[in-house]
Write a structure and sequence with these properties.
Layout lengths: L32 E2 L2 H9 L3 E8 L2 E12 L2 E7 L3 H4 L5 E15 L7 E15 L3 H13 L14 H5 L1 E7 L2 E7 L17 E4 L32 H12 L2
Antiparallel strand pairs: 1-8, 2-3, 2-5, 3-4, 4-7, 5-6, 5-9, 6-7, 6-8
Amino acid sequence: MSIDTPVPPGSADARPSYPVDATNRVKRLHERGAYDHETVHAILDAATMCHVAYVVDGQPYCTPTLFWREGNRLYWHGSSASRMLRNQSDSQPVCVTVTHLDSLVLARCGFNHSADYRSVMAFGRARLLTDPAEKERALVMMVDRLFPDRSAHLRPSTRQEIKATSVVVMEIDKASAKVRAKGVADEDDDYALPIHAERVPISMVIGEPEPCPRLLPGVERPAHLAPYRAGRRLDEVLTDAHARSIG
């Protein structure tokens, strides 16, 4: 079953799923909701950035950041001086969200205008990685999750660079996916109206790579960057990269 056909709660499908309660249950248009690992993880793995929501002294914040998934854990990083990371060191509850916009939908009435999308909300408690070896491994994965095998070809990070970067890990306690992939959906009577309707597909597409102007003579583009070629969909490249680097 693909992510276009999410597994509803109570389905006979026996795949592993996240527990469902009032926190993560999809309430509006619940038929679009899914809680199985396969659907949730596929949406997460096709993204580079997430938004992390948390509360500090009663004030809500939502921070965009690069992230990656390993099993049922999410990782993200940032400056050691950032407010987000300073306040996520003691198992603070957070909500991590990811959204892919797949199309704009123009119907025959304003009410039925919509969008096709894939989204995830994941809940858990964030903590800083403090074990030096675990942190260094995570910083390698921060690069290799996007560009498999690239870290082996780079200058090693200095101790100061590692010290200046913090990594947060969150075990996914609960999660839900929500997917719309139906295109135009008008009222039956409205199809007889002389009004144009359409679906406008939208995707992030890789552009032509622009080499650094200060490359040394003879330095060629490495083979591990071949998937990042002009015209490919970014979500497809990221899904493949995750499978190669993490599995």
